[in-house]
Amino acid sequence: MFSWLRKILSRSAPPAKHRRSRRKLREKLHLDDAHTLPILPRQLAQPRAPQPEDDPHKTFSEMRKQVLRGTSTKFDLPAPVTATEPWGVMMETTFQAGSLTLIALSDGTASIYLSSGEGSIGGGQHESIRNAAQRLVALGASFQPGATRMRMFTLPMNGQAIFYLLTDSGVFGAKALEDDFTERRHPWSALYFAAHEIITQYHHLEKQNRNL
After folding, report:
1. What is the DSSP letter of 65?
2. Contact 92, 67 (CB under 8 A)
3. Whole-angstrom Cα distance, residue 114 to residue 102?
4. The dihedral sign for the CA sequence 5, 121, 119, 166
5. How many angstroms separate the CA atoms of 2 and 76, rounded?
6. What is the mean pLDDT of each run of 10 residues along the chain (212 residues)?
7. pTM of this prediction?
8. Among 86, 103, 172, 199, who pairs with 140 as Cys (CB 3.0-4.6 Å)?
């Protein structure tokens, strides 16, 4: 099985201060250096028959476009109170082999995609994941008034993390070095750790499934 989370948490030869940041993040996610986490459990993902013409990179790109150009109506979500209230939050970070996109919607749906095309969609049928996703979206609303309207949606550069607040009035967000989030130097650090709580809950669920 593909150990996607370990690849995310490790980068090639990071400086010492970056290794300290990774260590703190591993502690946050209850991981040790030897831990490997397989690709998100298949039983969590919505079934989709593979197509011969599928291009994983194209699939990833199309998914991003759909979300970034979406609305609460298109995703059949409850109507926000205001047009600038987020109905979803997207976090994108990098790792050695590519990038990761985490998406949380107001109904508790939480999905994780890798730029390689791997990942898992849904997860909201599990209470712990659903609650973590809804907390992330609710927290995102508190950051929206000070967020920058985003018009370009390039993938993060190496060592960078980007947040997108998805609203019916457009996309708002912020970007910074990932270490600024992990070291709590950035005002949006709380959102960063709330997003990683979704990964933590997927991890716990995977461990439970292994023990069945």
Report:
1. H
2. no
3. 9
4. negative
5. 32
6. 40 39 41 34 38 66 92 95 98 89 96 82 85 97 97 94 98 97 97 95 81 67
7. 0.76
8. 86
